[in-house]
Prior knowledge:
Layout (H helix, E strand, L loop, with lengths): L2 E6 L4 H4 L23 E7 L8 E7 L5 E8 L5 E9 L2 E6 L7 H22 L16 H37 L1 E6 L4 E6 L1
Antiparallel strand pairs: 1-8, 2-3, 3-4, 4-5, 5-6, 7-8
Amino acid sequence: MNLELKLNWADVSHIVGNQHDHQHHHYESTTSPPGPPNPYVFSYQAGRAPGHVDRQHTEVSDGTGVVRGAFSYVDPKNQVRTVQYVADEHGFHPQLSHELEDSEAVKAAKQRHFDLYNRIAQEHAAGGVPAAVSQTGPQQSEAVIKATNKHLSLYERIAAQHAAIGAQHEAARLAFEATSEHSIQPEDNSVYYQKH
């Protein structure tokens, strides 16, 4: 029984370019150039009840990337809030009609955050590692320990199976090479493998 496997090589350096010969290759961009400015204007008003406007939005673009606009809405405290903005190449720049005031819960959360931040900064400045972040880590429950051990056991079993499969493939490859005859055909850069 003869088994013949033919491999072909092709020079693709003209497609992917020679890394040592950058000065002789010119790559063209396929990106289309930007079109002419396309300015726009839009505006709308809406409300939850007929004849009652509780939100509106207006926006104007000059077509060069600068957008100016304003929107307003009625907040949960029945206050009209308006935001005027400019968006350009430097980002989005809003201006609020009313300063936002934090609720008591937000004020307390911010204070806890700043207190914790300052405590951590002081500990780090002193070069110490806080006791709460020792190397022991968090306590694990029995269920977590059991699940971790099961995972590790399955992982080791699968890794062993993969190693055995890899060894079988390597043995088959070596056996094939030991019984194969290699020859290069100079006329078309092909390699022929013939099994005897």
